[in-house]
Design goal:
The complex is a heterodimer. Chain A is mainly alpha-helical. In chain A, 68% of the residues lie in helices and 0% in strands. Chain A has eight helices and no strands. Chain A has helices at 18-39, 42-59, 68-90, 101-106, 108-115, 119-129, 135-142, 146-164. The N and C termini of chain A lie far apart (49 Å). By secondary structure, chain B is mainly beta. Helices cover 11% and strands 43% of the residues of chain B. Chain B contains five helices and 39 strands. In chain B, the strands form nine sheets. In chain B, strands 28, 30, 31, 32, 33, 35, 38 and 39 form an eight-stranded mixed sheet that branches. In chain B, strands 3, 5, 6, 9, 12 and 13 form a six-stranded mixed sheet that branches. In chain B, strands 16, 18, 19, 21, 24 and 25 form a six-stranded mixed sheet that branches. In chain B, a hairpin with a 7-residue loop joins strand 38 and strand 39. Chain B starts with a helix and ends with a strand. The relative contact order of chain B is 0.09. The chains are: A mainly alpha, B mainly beta.
Chain lengths: 168, 578
């Protein structure tokens, strides 16, 4: 992995442009929040966001710098799903307890309902409902067929509807 | 729907806003890498060994490795280890408590954990010619032989072995030693020889301190010396629990019977967490009129295990049959039990090859979330001296669920995808067996049909007359064809002598020349069109694929006994895999 800071200081000033820095400042909290909803753990979301921005420094400049959110979502969500897969393989899930006080204080019912969905379904619902990404865009991000994503969303919403008791 | 949309959007926004985002730190690559290293460090072979040791202690007696288990206590496995520099010697016993005369299942491994890819070690000739040796502190009383001091002898030599970082040198307990007290009527050399030649270690009742040693040097025979030694205490007691590692409980059990033999596969629970050791064991029981019975079986062991679904979507868990028959004697009503043992194949060029290999080498069975079908197979030919007097074949299969959702209802999570389950067809006419395998039951159109066919000879002449050229004929029939067309392809009927050996497998390469029949709604202009880049591709539909071998035992010139053997399997080709 190549070294460097996203912030503009030190030896990597040439590589880290002010534009990159502004992308970081504009999207960092947004990405942490999205990833926290998807992975269900704020600390893990921080790690994943850090890793995502490290990859951004390596990929910069983006081919389409006007839409960094899509790039960040794609890389962040894929990292989140891969990380989950890696941890499951080796039983890392029990390494520490998740501090979910923030979620339980804010909306315990929604938090528990989301936790019953798998990560890909959570990602698809969060990205379409909260950020307005289309199912096609989410399918590209998750590297899954559009029909599959539509089915995740449909089934996920059914479960949320049942769990939250929301009228249809 | 609008209510859910609106409500969900607002509530998700509030929940997202509640996420603690902390200080706006600059992204430090080093910090991320450091965290990553901490996680990935668990995946090194040495760390995997640590995991094994910890687990072994937990499921063992509860004491430190090497402690004696009390009769009637747990029959869990034991592990002890010794390290020197980059080398670790591990001794493992499948159980802490054995019954008298039960095979003692102990294995030692020497692992290199240094930064290099491997190490060159020089050593004498220990167990199986390697650097490992075994022994037992207490002399063992052997009927007809007297007391034997079993010890880890090395024959004087200096040979070099390469110890790769990812490939420990492993050996089951191997006997060596010398008589220390003759029996009252004098020792018999033949009996001593027979005792040593029997690779199975059995012990009378008592407490036994079994050790493993590894003596070697690096930098040549006169280089830096290493001597590692580790020891386990096992108990052999008549009142020991039946030789199974799995506690009785509400777990799933499957039982299969064939004559006087039965095979039971049992798990202590039906549901496990993703990080939980899955305790499954197979028990083979002989309950016939004889005091004991000898049978020969696959060299993988009297009981072999497998998993129907691919682990991580990649690993076919099963056994590798090399058809070098082994022999086992079962005592009547004495269960022969083995914990689930992993074996299987993996792709050497897979990006996660190291992870897959480590998973296979971990003796503890853990599985990701899903519904899994574990099975055990036992079978063999019954022997009276060298004569075959019969045989048996047993298969037991259970279903377990691995799930970390405490709110899960029965049936959740859904079954692990079966598209990865291989499909087999097989036939055995005695003396010759034929097997056909498709890597999966369903393919997406355009994908190559991963088909393999092989046959082998258990006994028989050194030459067979083959009437198919090539040896195997393949028939492809579209089962859901509405208006099928059919072609038969003539094969060269010239007889060819094929040299064969007992136990030899013949793998046949799949190609256009093998196709002898095609029946489908649409026929290609020529059979070669079914193959792209040498790989078979079939149109959408349900297909039955059959393989046949025709020949004679003996050369073409003689009037050998003719044989015909065929088998088939069914697959489906679909527009798109779900």
């Amino acid at each position: 992995m190549r070294g460097g800071r996203l912030a503009t200081d030190g030896d990597d000033a040439r590589r880290a442009s002010p534009d990159l820095d502004s992308v970081f400042r504009a999207h960092r909290d947004w990405l942490v929040r999205r990833l926290a909803l998807i992975v269900g753990d704020a600390e893990e979301a921080h790690d994943l966001a850090q890793e995502t921005f490290v990859r951004l420094t390596q990929a910069w400049p983006l081919r389409d710098p006007s839409e960094p959110a899509r790039w960040l979502s794609t890389v962040g969500v894929r990292l989140a799903i891969d990380e989950r897969r890696r941890r499951r393989r080796w039983g890392f899930l029990a390494l520490r307890d998740t501090d979910a006080t923030w979620a339980i204080d804010a909306d315990p019912d929604l938090w528990h309902a989301l936790r019953r969905l798998d990560r890909r379904t959570r990602a698809a619902i969060v990205l379409t409902t909260l950020d307005g990404f289309s199912q096609d865009e989410v399918a590209t991000m998750l590297d899954a067929p559009r029909g599959t994503v539509a089915s995740w969303i449909s089934r996920g919403r059914e479960r949320l509807r049942a769990e939250l008791g929301t009228d249809g | 729907m609008a209510d859910l949309d609106s409500d969900l959007s607002q509530r998700l926004s509030r929940l997202a806003a509640a996420v603690p985002t902390g200080r706006l730190d600059p992204v430090h690559v080093g910090a991320v890498e450091a965290r990553h290293r901490v996680r990935m460090a668990w995946m090194t072979p040495l760390a995997a060994l640590v995991v094994i040791v910890v687990v072994g202690s937990l499921v063992g007696s509860g004491d430190t490795p090497g402690a004696t288990s009390e009769p009637g206590g747990t029959a869990g496995s034991l592990i002890a280890a010794d390290s020197d520099g980059d080398f670790t010697l591990t001794l493992r016993s499948a159980k802490a408590v054995y019954r008298p005369n039960e095979p003692i299942d102990m294995t030692a491994s020497l692992t290199f954990g240094g930064p290099a890819a491997g190490a060159q070690i020089a050593h004498g000739l220990g167990a199986n010619g390697g650097p490992l040796g075994f022994g037992i502190l207490e002399p063992v009383a052997v009927p007809g032989v007297g007391l034997i001091q079993l010890g880890g002898g090395y024959r004087l030599a200096c040979v070099e072995s390469t110890l790769r970082r990812d490939a420990p040198i492993t050996s089951p307990y191997a006997k060596g030693g010398t008589p220390v007290q003759d029996p009252p009527d004098g020792p018999t050399f033949e009996e001593l020889q027979a005792y040593m030649a029997d690779r199975v270690l059995r012990l009378p009742a008592g407490t036994w301190h079994v050790y493993a040693i590894a003596r070697f040097s690096t930098g040549g025979c006169a280089g830096q010396k290493y001597e590692l030694r580790t020891e386990l205490t096992i108990e052999v007691a008549p009142g020991a629990p039946l030789p199974t590692q799995v506690a009785a409980g509400e777990g799933p059990t499957s039982l299969d019977r064939d004559g006087a033999f039965s095979l039971e596969l049992h798990a202590s629970k039906a549901r496990y967490a993703p990080n939980e050791a899955i305790d499954v064991a197979g028990t083979l029981l002989f309950d016939g009129p004889n005091e004991s019975i000898e049978f020969r079986h696959d060299s993988s062991g009297p009981i072999m295990f497998g998993i129907r679904e691919r682990v991580f979507g990649e690993i076919d868990v099963g056994w590798i049959s090399i058809l070098m028959w082994d022999r086992t004697i079962l005592q009547r009503s004495v269960p022969y039990a083995r914990p689930f043992a992993k074996g299987g194949g993996l792709m050497g060029d897979h990006p996660d090859e190291a992870i897959h290999r480590a998973w296979l080498e971990d003796p503890v069975l853990r599985l990701p979330e899903g519904t899994w079908h574990l099975y055990a197979v036992a079978g063999g030919e019954l022997l009276d001296g060298d004569s075959i007097t019969g045989g048996f074949s047993l298969t037991a299969e259970i279903e377990i669920v691995v799930d970390d959702d405490p709110a899960a209802t029965p049936g959740h999570p859904p079954a692990t995808e079966y598209p990865y389950k291989p499909v087999y067809g097989g036939a055995d006419i005695g003396g010759i067996a034929l097997q056909l395998k498709s890597e999966r039951p369903t393919y997406e159109v355009g994908a190559p049909i991963e088909l393999s066919v092989w046959y082998w000879f258990m006994d028989g002449p050194q030459v067979i007359a083959s009437h198919f050229q090539p040896e195997v004929g393949l028939s492809l029939v579209q089962l859901d064809a509405t208006d099928p067309l059919s072609i038969g392809i003539a094969t060269d009927s010239a007889c060819t002598d094929l040299g064969v050996m007992t136990g030899q497998e013949r793998h046949v390469e799949i190609g256009p020349r093998l196709i002898t029949e095609l029946r489908a709604d649409a026929l290609p202009q020529k059979i070669d069109d079914l193959f792209v880049d040498g790989e078979l591709r079939l149109p959408v539909g349900r297909w039955r694929i059959s393989a046949s071998v025709i020949g004679e035992f003996g050369p073409c010139s003689g009037g050998g006994e003719p044989y015909e053997i065929s088998t088939s399997l069914e697959i489906e080709v679909v527009e798109r895999l779900e």
